[in-house]
Each structure stands twice: as structure tokens, then as C-alpha cells.
Design goal:
Length: 305
């Protein structure tokens, strides 16, 4: 049996107390009418039209995936089709996505198999029991300029990669070796057009962001597959980057695993992320977490839900 819950909290912005939550969440039980299929998605919008972009993707990606003619035979290809098609449909819609868009982390659970498609920097993390310990196993990898392969990919499209301090001449712009996201001092490397002050995205893949797309930002997902087991993989967390800004994958799994009730786990994750944000910043990001408890596998190997 799968038990799941999610919590989404609007970010705290002291100078914009009415700023809306740009995160969007969707959960589909019996996805496509199949009792063995579930779909989970977290979409983290950004820019002036970020809320609209995230809501559009939340409504569109699951339906496009379900309509794919290759979903049953090749879920990886189906996810790629769905993300690209969503990007095209958003571009054709009335939503201005020139400097707005959304990241996407989408998970399809089919029996014991899980397929995780990632575009951007939200994450899916599986708890895996190894020698009696629960260890975090990432099922996604952030698409940011911190990744050397992603950085080099967008540079081939003409992107200039600089932090804000480098862009403003406060630090050496020739230094192109960034350490880790945990050590960026809140000033990560970003994507810029040559001799311009836009788009400034800190991610290398997204849905939308038409100006950044010209610089190599793409809606192409990376898809990771895994097998679920109640004994070996009892817990899965899917969350926006608001959760992971100040918490490692392992810290997230350790905190979520303290509670048997997935709702309590989700509440605890969001509360702790919120607390950590305000220890460092005067504001918080929008924070969203889905927690899935994997309790039982049938004797025939099919996951109950």
C-alpha cells in the first residue's frame, strides 16, 4: 500500500506579503484508470507569470503523458514527448513565458517501477535501506550551471555564465570554477545573454523561459528509473528546491523517516525548511513537499495503492 500526503507553503516576502505561491502540485490515483498507476508532480514557477506557468504545466503534463502512444512500452520516451509538448503549448498560449516558466519533477509509479522525469532543480529522493540504515538515493539531479556538463552545454548556445557579483564587476568574471551549491553564498552562477542583463536564470532546464531557450535552456527531461520495495525503499520525497536550499538529501530523508504518517513528515519538512530559510535570509522561497510511504508489496510483486 502507498500512503502519501503533501504540503505547500507560500513563501514569506516581507515587502510583498500578498505574493502568491508559485508552486503547483498534482496527484493522480488510478492514473489513466489503472489501479497500479499513480502520478505525482511538483512544478515550481518563476518570473511574473510563474504561477500561471506552473499551473499550466501541472494541468498539461499529466494529460500529455497519458495520451502518449508509447507510454506503455517506453515511459522514458513518453515523458520526453510530454515535457516538450507542454513547452510548445505554453509558448502558443496567452501566457507570456519570455521571462517566466516553471521547473518540473514528475513521477510515474507503475506497480513496483518508478519513473522520475526532471526538468530543473526540484528533486525526488528515495530512502534506501542499506545495512540497517536509511540512505538518501537521488532519483533526480539538478539542472544548474554548477553541473559542468550543463554549463558547457548552454555555453555552446552562446550563454554567458556569471554570478551577480561577477556580472556587476565585484568579482573576477574569468573565474569559471564554482564549488558547490552549499557554498554559493546565495549568489549562484546564472545564464546571461552576451552583453545583456537577462535572463539571469540559475537553472539550465525549464518549461517556458523562451528568451533563455535561445541560450540553451531546454525542456528536455532527464528520466531516472528505479524499483520500489516496502522492505528496501520505504519512503519517497518529491519536493521543490525550497525544501533543499538548506537541507541535504540525507537530512530530508532522516527527518521524513521520523514519522509513520506521511502528512506529519510533509509538515515537518516544510516547517524545518521554513525555519532554516529564516536563519539565513529575511525571506523564504515557496516550499512544497510530497511524502510517499511504501508499506506493502503483493506476493505477485505488484504494488498496492
Amino acid at each position: 500500500m502507498l500512503r502519501y500526503a503533501f504540503v505547500s507553503q507560500r513563501g514569506y516576502y516581507p515587502e510583498a506579503l500578498d505574493k502568491e505561491n508559485q508552486d503547483a502540485v498534482c496527484v493522480y490515483r488510478r492514473y489513466g484508470g489503472d489501479s497500479e498507476q499513480l502520478f505525482f508532480g511538483v512544478f515550481d514557477g518563476h518570473g511574473q507569470q510563474g504561477t500561471s506557468c506552473a499551473q499550466f504545466a501541472k494541468d498539461t503534463v499529466p494529460q500529455l503523458l497519458l495520451c502518449s502512444t508509447v507510454l506503455s512500452s517506453d515511459p522514458v520516451a513518453a515523458f520526453s514527448e510530454a515535457m516538450f509538448a507542454c513547452n510548445e503549448q505554453l509558448r502558443a498560449s496567452a501566457i507570456d513565458d519570455s521571462l517566466s516558466g516553471t521547473t518540473a519533477i514528475a513521477c510515474l509509479i507503475r506497480g513496483r517501477a518508478i519513473y522520475v522525469a526532471n526538468v530543473g532543480d526540484s528533486r525526488a529522493v528515495l530512502a534506501e535501506r542499506v545495512d540497517g540504515e536509511l540512505l538518501a538515493r537521488p532519483l533526480s539531479h539538478d539542472h544548474t550551471p554548477f553541473r559542468e556538463d550543463e554549463c558547457e552545454r548552454v555555453k555552446k548556445f552562446g550563454a554567458v555564465i556569471l554570478t551577480l557579483d561577477q556580472l556587476e564587476g565585484l568579482k573576477d568574471p574569468t573565474k569559471q570554477a564554482w564549488t558547490t551549491e552549499e557554498e554559493d553564498d546565495g549568489d549562484p552562477p546564472r545564464i546571461w545573454a552576451p552583453n545583456a542583463m537577462y535572463p539571469g536564470t540559475a537553472f539550465t532546464r525549464s518549461i517556458g523561459d523562451s528568451l533563455a531557450e535561445q541560450l540553451g535552456v531546454t525542456a528536455e527531461p532527464e528520466v531516472v528509473t528505479a524499483k520500489l520495495s516496502a522492505d528496501r525503499t520505504p519512503l519517497l520525497v518529491i519536493a521543490s528546491d525550497g525544501v533543499f536550499e538548506f537541507m541535504s538529501n540525507q537530512a530530508v530523508i532522516q527527518l521524513a523517516s521520523k514519522y509513520n504518517d506521511p502528512q506529519q513528515s510533509a509538515i515537518a519538512l516544510v516547517a524545518e525548511a521554513y525555519r532554516l530559510w529564516l536563519e539565513v535570509e529575511v525571506r523564504t522561497d515557496d516550499i512544497t513537499a510530497i511524502v510517499i510511504r511504501i508499506d506493502e508489496v503483493c506476493t505477485n510483486g505488484v504494488m498496492k495503492s
